[in-house]
């Protein structure tokens, strides 16, 4: 059975996946959420990838799942170890040598974010409650505040040094209610950068907190789409 290796977004907090892990385990799969040193200004994407590679260890049937900023670490992991499948979840999909800081300008993410805010009637100014916690259960949102870590600014100027995407199945899952990276924006980026169509799923940017079971079901469907992945 495949093992799901879960990469968190900015801040690197493995706790983000804590509602998804039992859903995958209930289906008979191993799920490993990796904690990353996101608040360490001396740690870069190579260090993040090293943590994930260490967590993978000797596992040979791996589904790598990357959330948000975790999309910048995923290709580095794929160059170091054999990964059977890669799944992006509301993720930043980089080009080789791109920085996370430049990604927003290159893709037009901020314009897309503000356009959706105007269209849907909430504030254009970013704040956590409006853009991250709007669909997260209140008790989970309170707990999230205790786990929150600020991502060190240094990571946003570091190039994502990889040569190309691996020749493996890649999937893109986008939250219908994602206010940070709106659905139509994610679909465009997936087409432009991976020539893929993004799968839409109800939920906001922190979909593993707000809608874990449907996300687990979609991840399992990604695996079952390839008979080789289930061996």
Explain the overall architecture.
The chain is α/β, with parallel strands linked by helices and 231 residues long. The protein has one domain: 3-Layer(aba) Sandwich (Rossmann fold), CATH 3.40.50.1820. It is 38% helix and 13% strand. It is built from ten helices and six strands, in the order E-H-E-H-E-H-E-H-H-H-H-E-H-E-H-H. It has a six-stranded parallel β-sheet with strand order 2-1-3-4-5-6, sandwiched between helices. Helix 8 links the parallel strand 5 and strand 6. The chain is globular.
H and E order:
EHEHEHEHHHHEHEHH
CATH class: Alpha Beta
Largest sheet: 6 strands, parallel
Mean pLDDT: 95
How many structural domains are formed by the residues? 1
CATH architecture field: 3-Layer(aba) Sandwich
Strand line-up in the sheet with most strands: 2-1-3-4-5-6
- Secondary-structure content class: alpha/beta
**Poorly predicted residue ranges:** 227-231
What Rg do the Cα atoms give?
Answer: 16 Å
Find the CATH topology.
Rossmann fold
**Alpha plus pi helix count:** 10
For CATH, the homologous superfamily is named as: Alpha/Beta hydrolase fold, catalytic domain
Question: How many DSSP E strands?
Answer: 6
What percent of residues adopt helix (DSSP H or I)?
25-40%
């Amino acid at each position: 059975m495949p093992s799901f290796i879960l990469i968190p977004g900015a801040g690197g907090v493995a706790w983000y996946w804590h509602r998804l892990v039992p859903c995958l385990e209930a289906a008979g799969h191993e799920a490993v959420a990796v904690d990353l040193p996101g608040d360490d200004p001396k740690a870069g994407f190579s260090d993040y990838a090293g943590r994930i590679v260490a967590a993978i260890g000797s596992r040979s049937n791996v589904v790598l799942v990357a959330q948000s900023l975790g999309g910048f670490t995923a290709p580095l992991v794929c160059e170091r170890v054999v990964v059977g499948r890669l799944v992006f979840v509301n993720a930043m999909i980089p080009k080789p040598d791109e920085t996370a800081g430049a990604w927003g300008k290159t893709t037009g993410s901020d314009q897309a974010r503000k356009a959706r805010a105007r269209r849907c009637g909430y504030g254009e100014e970013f704040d956590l409650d409006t853009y991250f916690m709007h669909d997260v259960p209140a008790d989970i949102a309170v707990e999230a505040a205790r786990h929150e870590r600020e991502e060190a600014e240094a990571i946003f100027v570091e190039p994502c040094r990889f040569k190309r995407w691996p020749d493996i199945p890649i999937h893109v899952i986008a939250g219908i209610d994602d206010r940070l990276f709106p659905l139509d924006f994610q679909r465009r980026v997936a087409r432009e950068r991976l020539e893929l169509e993004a799968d839409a799923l109800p939920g906001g940017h922190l979909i593993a907190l707000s809608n874990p079971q449907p996300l687990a079901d979609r991840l399992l469907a990604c695996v079952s789409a390839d008979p080789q992945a289930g061996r």
